[in-house]
Amino acid sequence: MKILVTGGAGYIGSHTCLELLEAGHELTAIDDLSNSSKESLRRVEKLTGKKVDLRCFSLLDGEQTLAVLKEVQPDAVIHFAAMKAVGESVEYPLRYYKNNVSGTINLIEAMQTAGCKNLVYSSSCTVYGEPTKLPLTEDHPTATAESPYGWTKLMTEQIMRDVHVSDSSMNFTLLRYFNPVGAHASGDIGEDPNGIPNNLLPFITQVAVGKLAKLNIFGDDYETRDGTCIRDYIHVVDLAKAHVSAVEQVVAKQPGVVTYNLGTGTGSTVLEMVHAFEAASGKKLPYEIAPRRAGDIVAAYADPTKAKEELGWATTLDVNDMCRDSWRWQSQNPNGYEAS
Ligand code: WQD
Protein backbone atom coordinates (compact mmCIF):
# COMPACT_ATOMS: atom_id res chain seq x y z
CA MET A 1 0.00 0.00 0.00
CA LYS A 2 0.95 3.69 -0.29
CA ILE A 3 1.39 5.14 3.20
CA LEU A 4 2.08 8.71 4.30
CA VAL A 5 4.01 8.93 7.60
CA THR A 6 4.06 12.28 9.39
CA GLY A 7 7.03 12.66 11.73
CA GLY A 8 8.64 9.85 9.75
CA ALA A 9 12.22 10.95 10.53
CA GLY A 10 11.65 10.78 14.28
CA TYR A 11 12.47 8.03 16.77
CA ILE A 12 9.30 5.93 16.48
CA GLY A 13 8.60 7.21 12.97
CA SER A 14 11.91 6.01 11.52
CA HIS A 15 11.60 2.60 13.19
CA THR A 16 8.07 2.30 11.80
CA CYS A 17 9.19 3.35 8.31
CA LEU A 18 11.76 0.55 8.41
CA GLU A 19 9.15 -2.08 9.31
CA LEU A 20 6.69 -0.71 6.73
CA LEU A 21 9.33 -0.96 3.98
CA GLU A 22 10.23 -4.50 5.11
CA ALA A 23 6.50 -5.33 4.85
CA GLY A 24 6.53 -4.12 1.21
CA HIS A 25 4.74 -0.78 1.54
CA GLU A 26 5.56 2.41 -0.41
CA LEU A 27 6.30 5.43 1.80
CA THR A 28 6.16 9.19 1.72
CA ALA A 29 7.30 10.90 4.94
CA ILE A 30 6.57 14.44 6.09
CA ASP A 31 8.87 15.90 8.77
CA ASP A 32 9.76 19.48 9.77
CA LEU A 33 13.05 18.18 11.25
CA SER A 34 12.46 20.24 14.42
CA ASN A 35 13.32 17.23 16.59
CA SER A 36 14.76 14.75 14.06
CA SER A 37 17.39 14.34 11.36
CA LYS A 38 17.20 13.32 7.69
CA GLU A 39 20.03 10.94 8.55
CA SER A 40 17.63 8.59 10.31
CA LEU A 41 15.76 7.90 7.07
CA ARG A 42 18.99 7.72 5.06
CA ARG A 43 20.00 4.88 7.37
CA VAL A 44 16.58 3.25 7.07
CA GLU A 45 17.05 3.28 3.28
CA LYS A 46 20.51 1.73 3.66
CA LEU A 47 19.23 -0.97 6.03
CA THR A 48 16.30 -1.92 3.76
CA GLY A 49 17.67 -1.12 0.30
CA LYS A 50 14.41 0.77 -0.33
CA LYS A 51 13.52 4.45 -0.72
CA VAL A 52 11.51 6.87 1.39
CA ASP A 53 10.16 10.00 -0.30
CA LEU A 54 10.86 12.63 2.41
CA ARG A 55 9.13 16.03 2.27
CA CYS A 56 10.45 18.58 4.80
CA PHE A 57 7.76 20.94 6.09
CA SER A 58 5.41 21.43 9.05
CA LEU A 59 1.78 20.33 9.11
CA LEU A 60 1.10 23.94 10.14
CA ASP A 61 1.54 24.67 6.42
CA GLY A 62 -1.94 23.56 5.42
CA GLU A 63 -1.40 24.27 1.72
CA GLN A 64 1.68 22.04 1.43
CA THR A 65 -0.03 19.37 3.49
CA LEU A 66 -3.03 19.32 1.13
CA ALA A 67 -0.79 19.39 -1.94
CA VAL A 68 1.11 16.27 -0.79
CA LEU A 69 -2.08 14.41 0.12
CA LYS A 70 -3.54 15.17 -3.34
CA GLU A 71 -0.31 14.24 -5.13
CA VAL A 72 0.47 11.03 -3.24
CA GLN A 73 -3.12 9.77 -2.72
CA PRO A 74 -2.06 7.46 0.16
CA ASP A 75 -4.21 4.50 1.24
CA ALA A 76 -3.56 5.57 4.84
CA VAL A 77 -1.69 8.04 7.01
CA ILE A 78 0.30 7.24 10.16
CA HIS A 79 0.50 10.41 12.23
CA PHE A 80 3.52 10.73 14.57
CA ALA A 81 4.39 14.41 14.07
CA ALA A 82 4.06 16.13 17.47
CA MET A 83 6.09 17.80 20.18
CA LYS A 84 6.36 15.44 23.15
CA ALA A 85 8.38 16.90 26.02
CA VAL A 86 6.06 17.06 29.04
CA GLY A 87 8.06 19.70 30.92
CA GLU A 88 8.52 21.89 27.84
CA SER A 89 4.77 21.82 27.22
CA VAL A 90 4.19 23.39 30.65
CA GLU A 91 6.65 26.16 29.76
CA TYR A 92 5.31 26.77 26.21
CA PRO A 93 1.67 25.61 26.11
CA LEU A 94 0.64 27.60 23.01
CA ARG A 95 3.54 26.10 21.01
CA TYR A 96 2.23 22.65 21.92
CA TYR A 97 -1.44 23.38 21.21
CA LYS A 98 -0.57 24.99 17.87
CA ASN A 99 1.85 22.29 16.73
CA ASN A 100 0.06 19.20 18.03
CA VAL A 101 -3.61 20.18 17.75
CA SER A 102 -3.68 22.66 14.84
CA GLY A 103 -1.23 20.47 12.93
CA THR A 104 -3.55 17.48 13.37
CA ILE A 105 -6.57 19.53 12.27
CA ASN A 106 -4.72 20.58 9.10
CA LEU A 107 -3.84 16.95 8.42
CA ILE A 108 -7.39 15.64 8.84
CA GLU A 109 -8.86 18.44 6.73
CA ALA A 110 -6.35 17.69 3.97
CA MET A 111 -7.14 13.97 4.17
CA GLN A 112 -10.87 14.62 3.78
CA THR A 113 -10.34 17.00 0.86
CA ALA A 114 -7.96 14.58 -0.87
CA GLY A 115 -10.21 11.56 -0.15
CA CYS A 116 -7.92 9.65 2.24
CA LYS A 117 -10.09 7.87 4.82
CA ASN A 118 -7.65 6.04 7.12
CA LEU A 119 -5.52 7.39 9.95
CA VAL A 120 -3.38 5.56 12.52
CA TYR A 121 -2.62 7.94 15.37
CA SER A 122 0.27 8.10 17.82
CA SER A 123 -1.46 8.61 21.16
CA SER A 124 -0.23 7.90 24.67
CA CYS A 125 -1.15 6.15 27.92
CA THR A 126 -0.74 9.58 29.46
CA VAL A 127 -4.44 10.12 28.62
CA TYR A 128 -5.32 7.80 31.53
CA GLY A 129 -3.62 9.95 34.17
CA GLU A 130 -3.04 8.08 37.47
CA PRO A 131 -4.73 4.68 36.86
CA THR A 132 -7.56 3.69 39.20
CA LYS A 133 -7.23 0.06 38.08
CA LEU A 134 -4.26 -1.91 36.76
CA PRO A 135 -3.43 -3.34 34.28
CA LEU A 136 -4.83 -0.58 32.04
CA THR A 137 -7.51 -1.63 29.57
CA GLU A 138 -8.75 0.63 26.76
CA ASP A 139 -12.02 1.32 28.59
CA HIS A 140 -10.24 2.79 31.62
CA PRO A 141 -11.54 6.37 31.96
CA THR A 142 -9.32 9.07 30.55
CA ALA A 143 -8.36 11.70 33.11
CA THR A 144 -7.61 15.35 33.27
CA ALA A 145 -4.15 15.56 31.77
CA GLU A 146 -1.12 16.41 33.91
CA SER A 147 0.37 18.68 31.22
CA PRO A 148 -0.47 20.60 28.03
CA TYR A 149 1.28 17.76 26.18
CA GLY A 150 -1.18 15.31 27.73
CA TRP A 151 -4.10 17.61 26.89
CA THR A 152 -3.01 17.71 23.22
CA LYS A 153 -3.30 13.92 23.12
CA LEU A 154 -6.73 13.99 24.78
CA MET A 155 -7.93 16.79 22.48
CA THR A 156 -6.70 15.23 19.24
CA GLU A 157 -8.31 11.89 20.16
CA GLN A 158 -11.60 13.73 20.78
CA ILE A 159 -11.29 15.60 17.47
CA MET A 160 -10.96 12.26 15.67
CA ARG A 161 -14.01 10.83 17.43
CA ASP A 162 -16.01 13.95 16.53
CA VAL A 163 -14.85 13.90 12.89
CA HIS A 164 -15.97 10.27 12.61
CA VAL A 165 -19.43 11.22 13.94
CA SER A 166 -19.68 13.91 11.24
CA ASP A 167 -18.16 11.71 8.52
CA SER A 168 -18.47 7.98 9.21
CA SER A 169 -16.29 7.15 6.22
CA MET A 170 -13.26 8.38 8.19
CA ASN A 171 -11.43 5.67 10.18
CA PHE A 172 -9.17 6.47 13.14
CA THR A 173 -7.05 3.89 14.96
CA LEU A 174 -5.76 5.39 18.21
CA LEU A 175 -2.58 3.72 19.49
CA ARG A 176 -1.92 4.53 23.16
CA TYR A 177 1.79 3.87 23.68
CA PHE A 178 3.23 3.08 27.06
CA ASN A 179 6.97 3.82 27.33
CA PRO A 180 8.83 3.30 24.03
CA VAL A 181 12.54 2.49 24.50
CA GLY A 182 15.30 0.62 22.70
CA ALA A 183 16.59 0.73 19.13
CA HIS A 184 16.83 -1.36 15.97
CA ALA A 185 19.24 -4.30 16.44
CA SER A 186 21.67 -2.81 13.88
CA GLY A 187 22.42 0.08 16.25
CA ASP A 188 22.16 2.40 13.21
CA ILE A 189 18.91 4.11 14.21
CA GLY A 190 17.71 5.06 17.68
CA GLU A 191 16.47 7.75 20.04
CA ASP A 192 18.29 11.06 19.59
CA PRO A 193 16.55 13.68 21.78
CA ASN A 194 17.36 17.38 21.47
CA GLY A 195 19.30 18.69 24.50
CA ILE A 196 19.15 17.01 27.92
CA PRO A 197 16.83 13.96 27.69
CA ASN A 198 13.56 14.11 29.63
CA ASN A 199 13.00 10.37 29.43
CA LEU A 200 14.68 7.66 31.50
CA LEU A 201 16.40 5.44 28.93
CA PRO A 202 18.08 8.11 26.79
CA PHE A 203 19.25 9.76 30.02
CA ILE A 204 20.70 6.44 31.21
CA THR A 205 22.48 5.77 27.90
CA GLN A 206 23.98 9.29 27.87
CA VAL A 207 25.31 8.72 31.40
CA ALA A 208 26.73 5.37 30.32
CA VAL A 209 28.45 6.88 27.29
CA GLY A 210 29.90 9.69 29.42
CA LYS A 211 27.87 12.62 28.08
CA LEU A 212 26.09 13.11 31.43
CA ALA A 213 27.61 12.64 34.90
CA LYS A 214 24.91 10.72 36.74
CA LEU A 215 21.27 9.73 36.74
CA ASN A 216 18.88 11.43 39.18
CA ILE A 217 16.17 9.01 40.22
CA PHE A 218 13.09 11.12 40.89
CA GLY A 219 11.91 9.69 44.18
CA ASP A 220 12.29 6.33 45.91
CA ASP A 221 9.47 6.77 48.45
CA TYR A 222 6.55 5.67 46.28
CA GLU A 223 4.24 2.81 47.31
CA THR A 224 5.96 0.28 45.02
CA ARG A 225 8.13 -2.82 45.53
CA ASP A 226 11.33 -0.78 45.66
CA GLY A 227 9.97 2.75 46.14
CA THR A 228 10.55 3.89 42.54
CA CYS A 229 7.85 4.40 39.89
CA ILE A 230 6.59 1.59 37.68
CA ARG A 231 6.20 1.90 33.91
CA ASP A 232 5.48 -0.50 31.01
CA TYR A 233 8.56 -0.15 28.80
CA ILE A 234 7.98 -1.40 25.27
CA HIS A 235 10.69 -2.05 22.66
CA VAL A 236 10.40 0.46 19.81
CA VAL A 237 10.71 -2.36 17.24
CA ASP A 238 7.72 -4.17 18.77
CA LEU A 239 5.88 -0.83 18.74
CA ALA A 240 6.78 -0.24 15.09
CA LYS A 241 5.43 -3.65 14.13
CA ALA A 242 2.13 -2.82 15.85
CA HIS A 243 1.81 0.12 13.41
CA VAL A 244 2.22 -2.20 10.44
CA SER A 245 -0.59 -4.40 11.75
CA ALA A 246 -2.75 -1.38 12.58
CA VAL A 247 -2.37 0.35 9.21
CA GLU A 248 -3.08 -2.86 7.30
CA GLN A 249 -6.18 -3.43 9.44
CA VAL A 250 -7.52 0.12 9.15
CA VAL A 251 -7.48 -0.11 5.32
CA ALA A 252 -8.77 -3.66 5.15
CA LYS A 253 -11.53 -3.41 7.77
CA GLN A 254 -12.50 0.31 7.85
CA PRO A 255 -13.17 -0.08 11.61
CA GLY A 256 -14.30 3.47 12.44
CA VAL A 257 -12.68 4.63 15.70
CA VAL A 258 -10.75 1.92 17.56
CA THR A 259 -8.27 2.25 20.43
CA TYR A 260 -5.41 -0.05 21.45
CA ASN A 261 -3.07 0.00 24.44
CA LEU A 262 0.43 -0.87 23.24
CA GLY A 263 2.54 -2.20 26.07
CA THR A 264 4.07 -5.49 27.19
CA GLY A 265 1.65 -5.96 30.12
CA THR A 266 4.60 -6.01 32.53
CA GLY A 267 5.69 -3.09 34.72
CA SER A 268 9.29 -2.36 35.70
CA THR A 269 10.52 0.06 38.36
CA VAL A 270 13.16 2.70 37.66
CA LEU A 271 15.70 0.81 39.76
CA GLU A 272 14.91 -2.43 37.89
CA MET A 273 15.62 -0.62 34.61
CA VAL A 274 18.90 0.73 35.99
CA HIS A 275 20.01 -2.76 37.04
CA ALA A 276 18.84 -4.29 33.75
CA PHE A 277 20.83 -1.68 31.85
CA GLU A 278 23.96 -2.36 33.94
CA ALA A 279 23.63 -6.09 33.23
CA ALA A 280 23.02 -5.56 29.50
CA SER A 281 25.78 -2.99 29.00
CA GLY A 282 28.33 -4.12 31.54
CA LYS A 283 28.52 -0.47 32.65
CA LYS A 284 28.09 0.63 36.27
CA LEU A 285 25.55 3.42 36.32
CA PRO A 286 26.15 6.28 38.82
CA TYR A 287 22.88 7.58 40.24
CA GLU A 288 21.47 9.59 43.13
CA ILE A 289 18.01 9.67 44.62
CA ALA A 290 16.49 13.09 43.90
CA PRO A 291 13.14 14.66 44.86
CA ARG A 292 9.99 13.43 43.12
CA ARG A 293 9.24 14.96 39.68
CA ALA A 294 5.96 16.92 39.48
CA GLY A 295 3.32 15.14 37.42
CA ASP A 296 4.81 11.66 37.72
CA ILE A 297 2.28 8.88 38.27
CA VAL A 298 3.17 5.99 40.57
CA ALA A 299 2.47 3.05 38.28
CA ALA A 300 1.13 2.32 34.80
CA TYR A 301 1.22 -0.86 32.75
CA ALA A 302 -0.99 -2.18 29.97
CA ASP A 303 -3.40 -5.03 29.47
CA PRO A 304 -2.39 -5.79 25.84
CA THR A 305 -5.18 -8.34 25.24
CA LYS A 306 -7.23 -6.24 22.81
CA ALA A 307 -4.29 -5.55 20.47
CA LYS A 308 -3.42 -9.23 20.53
CA GLU A 309 -6.96 -10.34 19.74
CA GLU A 310 -7.78 -7.70 17.11
CA LEU A 311 -4.41 -6.85 15.57
CA GLY A 312 -2.82 -10.27 16.01
CA TRP A 313 0.11 -8.39 17.58
CA ALA A 314 2.10 -9.03 20.76
CA THR A 315 5.47 -7.89 22.02
CA THR A 316 8.39 -10.30 21.61
CA LEU A 317 11.28 -8.28 23.09
CA ASP A 318 11.94 -7.91 26.83
CA VAL A 319 13.64 -5.36 29.10
CA ASN A 320 17.06 -6.93 28.53
CA ASP A 321 16.63 -6.62 24.75
CA MET A 322 15.55 -2.98 25.25
CA CYS A 323 18.60 -2.13 27.36
CA ARG A 324 21.03 -4.03 25.13
CA ASP A 325 19.71 -2.40 21.96
CA SER A 326 19.60 1.10 23.54
CA TRP A 327 23.20 0.71 24.58
CA ARG A 328 24.33 -0.55 21.15
CA TRP A 329 22.75 2.51 19.48
CA GLN A 330 24.24 4.99 21.97
CA SER A 331 27.71 3.43 22.09
CA GLN A 332 27.87 3.29 18.27
CA ASN A 333 26.50 6.86 18.00
CA PRO A 334 27.71 8.83 21.06
CA ASN A 335 26.45 12.07 19.47
CA GLY A 336 23.34 10.59 17.93
CA TYR A 337 22.88 11.61 14.28
CA GLU A 338 24.76 14.88 14.86
CA ALA A 339 28.06 13.70 13.49
CA SER A 340 26.52 12.73 10.15
C1 WQD B 1 9.83 7.20 33.41
C2 WQD B 1 10.20 7.05 34.88
C3 WQD B 1 10.49 9.13 36.04
C4 WQD B 1 14.05 10.44 33.92
C5 WQD B 1 6.53 10.37 29.36
C6 WQD B 1 5.26 10.86 28.72
C7 WQD B 1 4.74 9.82 27.76
C8 WQD B 1 5.81 9.53 26.76
C9 WQD B 1 7.03 8.97 27.48
C10 WQD B 1 6.14 10.80 24.74
C11 WQD B 1 9.47 8.04 35.77
C12 WQD B 1 11.79 8.33 35.99
C13 WQD B 1 12.96 9.69 34.32
C14 WQD B 1 15.11 10.68 34.83
C15 WQD B 1 13.96 9.38 36.47
N1 WQD B 1 6.16 10.71 26.07
N2 WQD B 1 12.94 9.16 35.57
N3 WQD B 1 15.04 10.13 36.08
O1 WQD B 1 7.14 10.23 32.34
O2 WQD B 1 6.53 7.76 32.14
O3 WQD B 1 6.26 9.24 30.16
O4 WQD B 1 7.47 10.00 28.38
O5 WQD B 1 5.85 10.00 23.91
O6 WQD B 1 3.60 10.30 27.09
O7 WQD B 1 4.27 11.05 29.70
O8 WQD B 1 8.55 8.64 30.95
O9 WQD B 1 10.96 8.20 30.79
O10 WQD B 1 10.19 10.51 31.52
O11 WQD B 1 9.95 8.59 33.08
O12 WQD B 1 13.92 8.88 37.62
O13 WQD B 1 16.14 11.38 34.53
O14 WQD B 1 11.59 7.33 35.03
O15 WQD B 1 10.31 9.73 37.32
O16 WQD B 1 9.17 7.40 36.99
P1 WQD B 1 7.09 9.00 31.53
P2 WQD B 1 9.98 9.04 31.55
From TrEMBL:
Query: Nucleotidyltransferase as a keyword?
Result: no
List each copy of the NAD(P)-binding domain by range: 4-325
Q: Which InterPro entries match?
A: NAD(P)-bd_dom, NAD(P)-bd_dom_sf, UDP_G4E
**What are the required cofactors?**
NAD(+)
What keywords would UniProt list here?
Carbohydrate metabolism, Isomerase, NAD
State the pathway, as annotated in the record: Carbohydrate metabolism; galactose metabolism
**Reaction equations catalysed:** UDP-alpha-D-glucose = UDP-alpha-D-galactose
- Does this entry carry the keyword rRNA-binding? no
The source's superkingdom equals Bacteria
Q: Note one Pfam family from the annotation.
A: GDP_Man_Dehyd
Reported EC number(s) for this entry are 5.1.3.2
Q: Which family does it belong to?
A: Belongs to the NAD(P)-dependent epimerase/dehydratase family.
Subunit structure comment from the entry: Homodimer.
Could you identify this protein by its name?
UDP-glucose 4-epimerase
Species name:
Neorhodopirellula lusitana
